[in-house]
């Protein structure tokens, strides 16, 4: 017997009772997701934007709000200046970003092992915990979110979702990407005596630029 | 089995742990913070009780239909391009991982912390195959430098003070850290490990969840080391226990809310990542191969007895953070891969009760672990079940069996019991000085470290009778 058959047969004999059909198992599984408000935290503010902003900044993420995409280069420039950073940034190779007039900011396509700053797009934001979601894709390298010290994510307010379940629902509409990453605050560790230190391996700084009206 | 089975000598290990001058300090610093932060996170989430009940139901549902979910997961993982392997035992699992590494011509692997990897003895197996292993979780990096095993499932280096970590980094990092504060040391590890992430041939991770309806695996980290481990190398290998299944991503989220609050007191870890197959043809980065090794290693045996409840465990570590015994002796004294209350239940499954019978007895039955368990595992009940099995298997030392049999035969005869206990308390009172007994025959182990309270001179039943007589309603007839 193959290890696979050995394990499945040990599981079945351990469980004993006759096996249910897949449809009734699926119905049971769905029932376990009923009344989601009973098992999740309420949003901390009445609007998605406010709730997201409160949760995200509580975790050390910084936030800037702009009216539309055309204001993005200036907002990135402000962040670089505020942190005394050089004007060179690794830019996600997405057409919506490449098409902007970057003015004083100098974007590049490469990604160095010790990249200082990277700018990318978040597909969704989740107000419940202040999370941002990226999906791997031809124009979305995953390492862009992990190698730099400063990670700047651009989020359209219209892509804000209320709860984790809402993200699960929109994600289920398309084929799963290789990586779906929920980013909730800058990288950190408590591995030395439980004391919290930022920038363990991933970015020590996470900055969100919220585009409020890009309709 | 590669499990580090507790050697005879649990008492010797606890003695040396208790004598260690820095261990208690190190444990208190982390468990104290963890306990406070968990309490705050639960207080800020009034739905926690309902969420916990639901989490328990989700895990029970998956376990009741485990064969269905294993097959569904396998089908969807293969459809997304992963290769799925099955391993009945630890040895089978490590052999599969080593073979994948060898086939890939791998010389160096990076690894993101996985307790299952420890359980199956992966570090040892890789070393035996001549493959260099780089641990990327900061705590695992610390214990790799120290040549140790994890002492906690969430904070594997909990037993080390910052001063001890500084010594390890000064010797092991080139250049050494700029200063001894945690921030400088984290900075130094970031510098030290960066090139290793990008130069690895294979990345190995565990999985917090296996999502059946997508065939993806979920990892959670605060550092970002899992993605840096699994994205750059051409091969990603996952090792996961078969109990990690969930029906869908939404079910995983319901459990994540419990897991993170119970483990660190956060709401979500900084990075919650679903890994689904290898790099797509046009993707900007990612591995060419993804392998998932599903490991049984004793789990299917637990389905038919009371230990089935233990398969709900989501490895948060709350039980050990709140355990009075763990907080005195630390993780290494338990001798197995999993310490604390959950370890005392699991180690006898993995290593055999005869090699680990001391663990279920190293418990005060105060019930804190069950109180904080996010999926309602009745840990004290399961520990008591091991005690019962130990008795039935006659694993107790002869003197203990003798003593308990004697007590049981007296306790079943009320008159004899009252006579014996009446004599006993009066004898004990003779030994007392100022209300305390400093030295007690047959109980030297107790009185060596603390005095025994001297009894009042009467037994409970005598006091109870006297109280009844005094408070009886006047005029009421009594027999």
Q: Please, could you describe this protein's structure?
A:
Chain A contains six helices and twelve strands. Chain A is α/β, with parallel strands linked by helices and 215 residues long. Chain A has a six-stranded parallel beta sheet, sandwiched between helices. Chain A has a four-stranded mixed beta sheet with strand order 8-5-6-9. A two-stranded antiparallel ribbon of chain A has the order 10-11. The radius of gyration of chain A is 21 Å and the shape is elongated. Chain B is built from 24 helices and twelve strands. Chain B has helices at 10-19, 23-43, 48-64, 66-79, 90-103, 115-119, 122-128, 138-146, 162-172, 182-199, 225-230, 249-263, 299-302, 318-321, 326-329, 340-351, 353-356, 358-361, 368-372, 379-392, 398-411, 414-431, 444-447, 460-471; strands at residues 83-87, 108-111, 132-135, 202-205, 209-211, 216-221, 235-241, 245-246, 271-275, 289-295, 436-437, 452-453. In chain B, a hairpin with a 4-residue loop joins strand 5 and strand 6. In chain B, helix 9 (162-172) crosses helix 10 (182-199). The longest helix of chain B is centred in the N-terminal third of the chain and has 21 residues, at 23-43. Chain B starts with 9 loop residues before the first helix and ends in an 8-residue tail after the last helix. Chains A and B meet through helix 1, helix 2, helix 6, strand 9 and strand 10 of A and helix 2, helix 3, helix 4, helix 8 and helix 10 of B. Strand 9 (179-183) of chain A pairs antiparallel with strand 9 of chain B.
């Amino acid at each position: 017997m193959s290890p696979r058959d050995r394990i499945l047969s040990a599981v079945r004999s351990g469980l004993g009772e006759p096996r249910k059909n897949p449809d009734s198992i699926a119905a049971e599984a769905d029932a376990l997701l009923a009344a989601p408000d009973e098992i999740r935290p309420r949003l901390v503010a009445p609007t998605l934007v406010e709730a997201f902003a409160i949760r995200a900044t509580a975790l050390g993420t910084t936030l800037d709000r702009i009216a539309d995409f055309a204001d993005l280069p200036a907002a990135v420039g402000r962040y670089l200046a505020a942190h005394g950073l050089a004007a060179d940034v690794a830019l996600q190779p997405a057409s919506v970003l490449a098409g902007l007039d970057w003015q004083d900011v100098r974007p590049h396509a490469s990604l160095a092992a010790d990249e200082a700053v990277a700018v990318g797009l978040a597909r969704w934001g989740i107000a419940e915990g202040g999370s941002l979601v990226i999906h791997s894709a031809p124009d979305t390298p995953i390492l862009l979110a992990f190698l730099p010290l400063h990670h700047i994510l651009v989020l359209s307010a219209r892509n804000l979702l209320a709860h984790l379940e809402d993200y699960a629902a929109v994600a289920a509409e398309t084929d799963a990407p290789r990586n779906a990453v929920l980013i909730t605050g800058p990288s950190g560790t408590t591995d030395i005596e439980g004391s919290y230190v930022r920038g363990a391996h991933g970015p020590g700084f996470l900055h969100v630029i919220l585009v409020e009206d890009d309709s | 089995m590669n499990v580090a089975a507790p050697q005879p000598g649990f008492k010797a290990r606890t003695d040396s742990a208790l004598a260690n001058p820095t261990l208690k300090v190190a444990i208190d610093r982390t468990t104290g913070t963890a306990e406070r932060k968990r309490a705050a996170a639960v207080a800020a989430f009034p739905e926690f009780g309902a969420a916990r009940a639901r989490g328990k139901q989700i895990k029970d549902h998956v376990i009741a239909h485990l064969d269905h979910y294993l097959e569904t997961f396998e089908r969807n993982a293969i459809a997304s391009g992963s290769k799925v392997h099955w391993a009945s035992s630890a040895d089978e699992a490590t052999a599969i991982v080593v073979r994948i590494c060898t086939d890939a011509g791998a010389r160096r692997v990076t690894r993101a912390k996985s307790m299952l990897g420890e359980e199956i003895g992966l570090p040892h197996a890789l070393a035996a195959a001549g493959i260099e292993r780089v641990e990327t979780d900061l705590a695992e990096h610390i214990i790799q430098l120290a040549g140790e095993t994890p002492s906690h499932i969430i904070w594997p280096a909990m037993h080390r003070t910052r001063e001890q970590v500084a010594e390890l980094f000064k010797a092991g990092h080139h250049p050494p850290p700029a200063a001894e504060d945690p921030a400088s040391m984290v900075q130094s590890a970031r510098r030290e490990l960066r090139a290793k992430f990008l130069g690895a041939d294979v990345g190995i991770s565990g999985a917090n969840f296996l999502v059946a309806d997508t065939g993806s695996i979920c990892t959670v980290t605060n550092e970002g080391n899992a993605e840096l481990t699994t994205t750059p190398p051409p091969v990603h290998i996952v090792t996961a226990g078969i109990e990690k299944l969930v029906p869908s991503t939404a079910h995983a989220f319901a459990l994540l809310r419990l897991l993170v609050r119970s483990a660190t007191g956060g709401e979500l870890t900084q990075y919650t990542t679903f890994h689904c197959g290898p790099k797509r043809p046009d993707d900007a980065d990612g591995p060419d191969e993804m392998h998932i090794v599903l490991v049984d290693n004793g789990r299917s045996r637990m389905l038919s007895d009371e230990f089935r409840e233990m398969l709900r465990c989501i490895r948060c570590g709350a039980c050990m953070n709140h355990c009075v015994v763990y907080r005195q002796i630390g993780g290494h004294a338990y001798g197995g891969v999993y310490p604390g209350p959950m370890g005392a239940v699991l180690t006898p499954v993995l290593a055999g009760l005869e090699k680990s019978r001391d663990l279920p007895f190293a418990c005060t039955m105060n019930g804190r672990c069950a109180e904080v368990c996010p999926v309602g595992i009745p840990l004290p009940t399961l520990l008591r079940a091991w005690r019962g099995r130990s008795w039935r298997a006659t694993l107790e030392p002869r003197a203990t069996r003798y003593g308990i049999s004697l007590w049981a035969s007296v306790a079943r005869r009320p008159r004899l019991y009252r006579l014996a206990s009446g004599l006993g308390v009066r004898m004990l009172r003779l030994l007392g000085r100022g209300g305390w007994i400093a030295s007690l025959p047959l109980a030297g182990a107790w009185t060596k470290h603390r005095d025994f309270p001297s009894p009042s001179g009467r037994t409970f039943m005598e006091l109870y009778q006297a109280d009844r007589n005094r408070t009886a309603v006047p005029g009421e007839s009594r027999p």
